[in-house]
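Lay summary

Proteins are chains of building blocks that fold into shapes. Our project writes down both the chain and a compact code for its shape. Here are two examples, one after the other.
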Amino acid sequence: MAVGLRCAAIRTCGRIVRRAFSLRTAHSVKQMEDALQLVRNIVPALTGGKHKGQAGRIGIVGGCQEYTGAPYFAAISALKVGADLSHVFCTREAAPVIKSYSPELIVHPVLDSSDAGREVEAWLPRLHALVVGPGLGREQRLLENVEGILEASKAKDIPVVIDADGLWLVAQRPAVILGYQKAVLTPNHMEFSRLHQAVLSGPVDSTDPRGSVLRLSRALGNVTVVLKGEHDLISDGQQVLECSLEGSSRRCGGQGDLLSGSLGVMAYWALLAETEKTDGSRPLLLAALGACLLTRQCNRQAFQKHGRSTTTSDMIAEVGAAFRELFEA
């Protein structure tokens, strides 16, 4: 029986690898099979001996009057992937709306307070990772508060995923994240162009996207960068992974929030995993690959059911099945 299960797992792994990566040589096939297995290795086993919180306590920093959906999507995705607790630190006006979306979330209406930095910092010792930016907006006071939260997170060595308007802040003040190798940036095409211009003082070389991602990561001090697109490019300044798992042509708003929320959990898991499980690979590179694979698989499954009407809520409903298909089959 054990041999049969192992053979089935190997076949599943091979099928996913063939769908997921741009492969040119037998050597690259082996590399990608190894990478997928390493992502699987960081997923913690579900056992009866664990207590609430051990699988992850994730904080989402974002949510304002205009944007309440994004922090909800990121926070609920973190729970669906396997975190035990999901906190949202948002503005006072956004809090009742986000609370109304789900009783699963712990919502703190503090982000626009005069003492926001101190209030969020008090929670940092209880959190395993932060996701900064979903629904943040660009109000100057909020950006200043978030800058203080990022500084406090770095001081406490907490992994940070930065997306959306958190990336706007980084583009304005790259020093806030420079050299912090427990950070992951998840820009789309426009956000990447803005970051590239701010950090490297020039436009992106559209003929060499892999090289552009690699150079930006290096310029930021080997911060992990995930360039989202038709194929996701992931670099830690040392190598580039290209994830091209088939998703769909549907590009509804909120998909990046699913990715950032799931990445927050996987970043914690990857950093927690023993060295032998990651085989010397950079943990956040594996976490980013896992989150990209999962988001694309959710998109694919949701589109098969809903077609053009697919929304991010439909994708989040697929997280459990998609996770099993990728990482537990």
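And here is the second example, written the same way.
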Amino acid sequence: MADWRNVGNWHWKEKNCLAWAKTYLESQLTGLEAKGSGISAKVTSVESVTGDVDLNIRKGRLLAIYDVELKLEWEATKGDEKVTGKITVPEVAHDTDAYVYEVTATSTSTAALPLKDFVRAQLTQVIGQKLGNFTEDLKKENGSEMYIAGDSAKSSETSTPVSGQVARDFKEGKSGGTTGVAKTQSATFGTVVVKQTSEFMCSASDLYATLTDPQRVAVWTRAQADIKPEVNTKFRLFGGHIEGEFTALVPGKRIEQTWRVATWPAGHFSKATIELEQLSNSTRLSLKQTGVPLNEEDATKANWERYYWNSIKGSFG
């Protein structure tokens, strides 16, 4: 089976790095100080880090995609005056470095105001400088295991030998069952049928739109979606890693398409049919995919689940 850790560094691949991010931000931000005008302010602790932090491989590129809310506790002193409070950064994200800081203090006294203002003006600048290193450190500390060395990638792409019975069936022109044979210009290989079902808490028409509408598809793939819900129209998802063509569409009921992964044998497409059944309070999705390369069966099953069904549920509920 092909190594989805990442053949040729081309597979769509994702690693959850939230736990690493919590530890990293605690170590980098706790104890940060700013001093001036007789005032000393510092971050005393990282109260919480919530949201998503992922590393992705798409089209051979390592991408950091994250969006978290950060809550910190601070302390500031001037002479005998001491004030504590919190800083909330609602959005620390991969696509912005213009952070918003919500600063609150436990004291509302007149003497506390200069210290709170100093935290807002000076301590947040120091925090912002540290946050500016987050993307590169995220890639540096977690990116190595996302790639496979060139020799390993080449060996992973070697076609699985066709079993004796499958080969005989191919020679005799037989097909059917859950296994089969495909032939391209460069290889002959075994294929299997993948079947899955999943239930979604939405209407069949909504689920159909989620699978075919470019704006909705962009949400659950987290990338621009080159897709248009028209028969004989080609689509490309996940930076071109997934491609195919719609062959039949029945809104709210059925989607038929050719479908392939970029690392499959050149020119080979499977045939995927998605049936949508409207239930009383939900929709049952049934997938039947024929022509999946034998050595890609487990990876194909796992990635339909993770990158299609679970991602849709996580994005739309």
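What can we say about the second shape? The radius of gyration is 26 Å.
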